[in-house]
Fold this sequence. Notes:
Layout: H1 10-19, H2 24-33, H3 43-49, H4 53-65, H5 91-123, H6 126-163
Helix pairs in contact: 1-2, 5-6
The structure holds zinc ion.
Zinc ion binds near residues 71 and 90.
Amino acid sequence: MEARGIPAEPQAIRALAERCGHDGGRFLARVADGSGPDLGDLGALAVELGLSEREMTGLALAYAFEEEPACAVPGCERPAVPDGGRLGECAEHAAEYDARAEAEAWGLARKILGPWVESTREIGSDELTQVMEKALKEVNDAGSRAQDELERAEAALERAGRDV
Ligand SMILES: [Zn+2]
């Protein structure tokens, strides 16, 4: 604030807050030690301070999170990929999540198709059996590719964990 020509004195800060439509006392309490009720929209304050959009975004993030947003996976402190993960994961967790979902989907497909192929064999039509066995082979191949991908993603996640 001092860089903006506003002395970091309670009186000046209170006056600034009141110019922007905030309650001076509440604003001071919030700025001083983070106590007091949420201040709501700080847009007018940002305008009054002449903040650039970048500074405003930075202030908003600091205000909301008090730090850079981190990965949503508990215990993981790598930064979240902006607009990357659905839940705001880091790159490694997002990749592992995708790979696991893919592997699980193929696993489920195999579980469904396996018994179908068995019952097709019992029907005794060579042509139908061939079609179904080919389908099962394709599912198995895709499933093992997805499994390889999952193992790669898990290894990358472990390496990233060691580098921290
Ligand atoms: Zn993570």
